[in-house]
Amino acid sequence: MPPSHPAPPPVDDLDATLVEAWRLLGRAAADPASPLHTPVLATIGRDGAPEARTVVLRAFDPATRALTFYTDARSPKVAELTADPRATVLLYDPDAKVQLRLTGVATVTVGAAALWETIRASSRLDYAQAAAPGAPLASPVLVSLPTGAPNFRLIIFTFGALDWLRLSAAGHRRARFVWGEGGVSATWLAP
Ligand SMILES: Cc1cc2nc3c(=O)[nH]c(=O)nc-3n(C[C@H](O)[C@H](O)[C@H](O)COP(=O)(O)O)c2cc1C
User: What domains can be seen in the chain, in order of their start residue?
Assistant: First the structure.
């Protein structure tokens, strides 16, 4: 079966590459069918060791280079990001054969009540477990709290660097974009 979103031909243009990265990230947030919809968020564990887990990409703001994720206030990643906000988000699109590695910092904020109301009832249950994520359980049967609203948090991840890698039989391409006070600087890298 052909890929649902075939890879466009390589474009050896850094500006066009960044436009393509923005397009992929925008679709990743808006379309649950996008292979980039569930990236890996990597953080620094409380013991200094790397930690990584899958999360759902909820929003992408190209103006601020911010990705939004939802999580439970009690999950270890929240404590990790509070102690050290540095994080990496890794995304891979097997149709486009594009890997994106985003490095930046994340802040954790309380989710607004209006946003909570937009979450499906079944998904709200994720935040309403009596036991904190990762807590040992005597039984796998879950016990629910009346509401998960107090546990609902947003992770806002803002990246300052984007590493783009596109695999292609016509020649792999890798580029790095770094944002600073003077704007964005871009360069090709050896893949
Ligand atoms: C497809 C998929 C999507 C997930 N989405 C989220 C998510 O959006 N937010 C979240 O906190 N955990 C999500 N999880 C669970 C995390 O991967 C992880 O197991 C959990 O958050 C605990 O992580 P921590 O112990 O590192 O804090 C998802 C897992 C999978 C498999």
Answer: 14-133+146-172 (2.30.110.10)
